[in-house]
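Subject: design request, 505 residues
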């Protein structure tokens, strides 16, 4: 029986994507528009909470054809209904002012779950509600449910072209801090890359938001197939996160999907013949990544999980992996296993497929740091001139000072350094990042040495009769000193979650 996942949709982008995602899942599982299961349809394990500060966004969902699949009690609209004005501070202070109402909704859904596994948040980090209210929710979810997995599908702004939100560097940087510190896994979706891929696949010059949302919902649907059609591996969030994220700070994932088709454009209906090798080879092509990155000479994969859906012979998968290795189509980190993990899943019996095989790649790649660098560079350019800062100073988080910006920038630059360090062979060396020239302070982002991982593993194996693994980890957490790296805190938190989840099962 699949465990429950509570889905949180924040802001206009999050609700638009979420609405299309749920429509697709209903179609795949034979759920009618009134929310009834068709005969032989499989039951899902998900609950939905919808948050927005603009009533127009939610009105579209509440009056749409799939309105009956939502619980009316799980809608939240800002009191003034004017939105967060593309201001992270407005969105965040809205969360603070109504946190009791929001947390009551989340607690109600959590209490109604038989075996809650975690939370899945859908939002954009460029606007005001998705970034500000989304950041607030991440902090509260992490505090209220410390042993549950938190995964986000975060839409990043187009950093290569001028976007609709001029202050997106501010909002993005502030959101990045929460995504780094409070989420266990972040699936990054870049608006620029999404528009490029949708235009290429659908043969349209300027794809609409609905068309790019279709691409996002397809990716989300494919990434949850192993949860909805569970097999013997990768059948829960914990196993997926563990296979892709070997170190806690490097938890930002990129995706690729093929073949992507559309029913509204005649040219997009045609699909060339697909084989397992064709699909896996295309997934590795940089042009198919849904993140605009600029790989360097040392850029490499930390991990890859390919979700292959359709009629597939496992022998073909093995042969394809051998061919990819022979051609050296993927470069991996020097300190970890150089292997592509593959999960085979079923096709939906309710939707006819125009192709025999489709594939999704979830990858942890060091080049994602180049996206973060562009955000920091654009932030620095605006902050240098204090452009558009007055609107932020009027909100509660910045009423006294602008330290929030400085702290967020430090967290993001540390994250960039972490990904760059992961490209080196001595990444897990105990001495890496622990020494500094005389007179200089050591960086707060010390790499987690292998000895830390060993200590955590030893800690969980020492299990006296009167003390559980979770108690031992909690004791180690309470004994952390300010000198311990933040990444150790995250590693202990993840171990604590995993241990308690195993105890519940």
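Subject: RE: design request

Done. Sequence follows.
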């Amino acid at each position: 029986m699949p465990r429950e996942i509570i889905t949180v949709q924040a802001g206009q982008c999050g609700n638009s994507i979420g609405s299309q995602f749920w429509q697709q899942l209903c179609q795949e599982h034979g759920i009618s528009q009134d929310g009834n299961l068709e005969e032989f349809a499989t039951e899902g394990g998900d609950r939905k909470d919808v948050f927005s500060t603009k009533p127009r966004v939610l009105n579209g969902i509440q009056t749409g054809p799939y309105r009956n699949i939502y619980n009316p009690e799980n809608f939240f609209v800002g009191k003034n209904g004017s939105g967060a004005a593309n201001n992270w501070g407005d969105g965040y202070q809205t969360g603070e002012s109504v946190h009791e109402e929001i947390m009551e909704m989340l607690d109600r859904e959590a209490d109604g779950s038989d075996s809650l596994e975690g939370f899945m948040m859908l939002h954009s980090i460029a606007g005001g509600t998705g970034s500000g209210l989304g950041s607030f929710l991440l902090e509260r979810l992490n505090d209220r449910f410390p042993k549950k997995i938190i995964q986000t599908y975060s839409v990043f702004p187009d950093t290569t072209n001028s976007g609709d939100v001029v202050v997106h560097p501010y909002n993005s940087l502030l959101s990045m801090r929460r995504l780094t510190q409070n989420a266990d896994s972040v699936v990054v979706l870049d608006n620029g890359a999404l528009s490029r891929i949708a235009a290429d696949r659908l043969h349209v010059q300027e794809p609409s938001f609905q068309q790019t949302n279709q691409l996002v919902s397809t990716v989300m649907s494919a990434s949850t197939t192993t949860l909805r059609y569970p097999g013997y591996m990768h059948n829960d969030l914990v196993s997926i996160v563990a296979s892709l994220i070997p170190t806690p700070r490097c938890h930002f994932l990129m995706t690729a999907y093929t073949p992507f088709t559309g029913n509204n454009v005649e040219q997009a209906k045609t699909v060339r013949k697909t084989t397992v090798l064709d699909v896996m080879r295309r997934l590795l092509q940089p042009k198919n990544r849904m993140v605009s990155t600029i790989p360097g000479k040392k850029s490499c994969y930390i991990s890859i999980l390919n979700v292959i859906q359709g009629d597939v012979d496992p022998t073909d998968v093995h042969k394809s992996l051998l061919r990819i290795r022979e051609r050296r189509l993927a470069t991996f980190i020097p300190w970890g296993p150089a292997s592509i993990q593959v999960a085979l899943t079923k096709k939906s019996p309710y939707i006819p497929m125009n192709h025999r095989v489709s594939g999704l790649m979830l990858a942890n790649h060091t080049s994602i740091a180049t996206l973060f660098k562009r955000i920091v560079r654009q932030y620095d350019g605006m902050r240098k001139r204090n452009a558009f800062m007055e609107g932020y100073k009027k909100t509660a988080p910045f009423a006294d000072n602008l330290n929030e910006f400085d702290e967020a920038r430090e967290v993001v630059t540390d994250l960039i350094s972490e990904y760059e360090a992961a490209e080196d062979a001595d990444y897990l060396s105990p001495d890496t990042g622990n020494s500094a020239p005389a007179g200089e302070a050591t960086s707060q982002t010390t790499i987690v040495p292998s000895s830390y991982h060993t200590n955590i593993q030893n800690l969980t194996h020492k299990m006296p009769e009167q003390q559980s693994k979770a108690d031992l980890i909690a004791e180690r957490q309470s004994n952390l000193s300010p000198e311990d790296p933040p990444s150790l805190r995250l590693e202990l938190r993840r171990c604590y979650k995993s241990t308690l989840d195993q105890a519940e099962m």
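Residues 379 and 385 are 10 Å apart (CA to CA).
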